[in-house]
Amino acid sequence: MNLISTPPIRRIAMLSVHTSPLAMLGGKKTGGMNVYVRDFSRELGREGVQVDVFTRSQDEAAPFIERLGVNGRVINIPAGPRQPIATAEVPPYLNEFTQGVLAFAAAENIQYDVIHSHYWLSGLVAEQLRDVWGAPIVQMFHTLGHMKNKIAMSDSERAPQIRLDGECRVIQIADRLIAATLAEEEQLVSLYNANPGRISIIPPGVDLKRFHPIDKKTAKKRVGIPCGDTNILFAGRIEPLKGIDTMLRAMALIQKRRPDAVENCCMAIIGGDPWADDLDEEMARLQELRHDLDIHDLVMFLGAKDQEILPNYYAAAEMVVMPSHYESFGMVALEAMAMGTPVIASEVGGLAHLVQHGVTGYHVPSRNPEALAGRIFELLSNPECRDYMGRNAREHARQYAWPNITAKFMKLYSAVLAGQTCVML
To answer: Is the pTM of this model over 0.70?
Structure first.
């Protein structure tokens, strides 16, 4: 019998160049990827793997090294301005970032077994690190520029050419590409000519210790919602591809046709900063749309919320709505389902695979307020259906528990390190 030696995985270099896993969620650049890197790194640490997450320092007051659970650290590498900058402004500082990572590893006399890079910027850094360290690259994109361009409504929403070129480069040089779903695998192959033999499908995970059912009355009390009221929730970044305008128009339709259905009802939008002196362009547009639709009393912008309180918002909601035009997976949907809350989601990308239509929630066509209004009304008016879907959602989410997902990655890391091209997960 031919036995292939599988080297142990002791230390991972996790790259998240443009955004820190410890950043407040709901901002312009903070969302599902931040949650993914943070929780996955913590789970690896619990498995005994040393994980260093390298990110660009965006705050002069932040320490150089921050703890991230057991065996985990976030290393804030100075590269460019020590303040937040647009993602499009990061590329000129990638070489400086790479040199900072190399200097840190050399100073601590560290050797990494695997480089796990997130997003295209990190992939470009990973290529330079591999040239020095010799460690293989496992790459995830989380979102793809060509897919963003497919749904863009204006030039400002389009991915720049430097990103498209960067993604193509990283796809060609990575030792292993990770797709969250079959849909993302197909996109990598058809849009970027990726080699299917170097793609593994591993979905994101969810922390079932944080996201688990909470008594609805208790949750509503914690977040200040009267127990007799009903609540519809959106949580995520405030940007055009999230389709929040579709959701507002759907609520206006329900208010016009069935005002009784939304009596004592509130749609809560978590994300962004609705009170900023200089409002983000999309936040300003949505607030103006809310005024024009005359649903000011029906829709509330709550701003970004810490993940410690977020589970209570999920539990207090009758449903979570994700009207996105594009989602590679949909972490918010998975978190809501783990809480036992049904999800209404656009039938796009990962959401089409994650949400089971008629079982854990509903699919609706993207950019279709009429269809979305119909499904929202259906769940608002049918508590038995909500309960049924909520129970199914919780059960379905169990398979995505982080220990299950991390076990797949540990197997993949070992196979890549051993030079195996075929990885059975």
So the answer is: yes
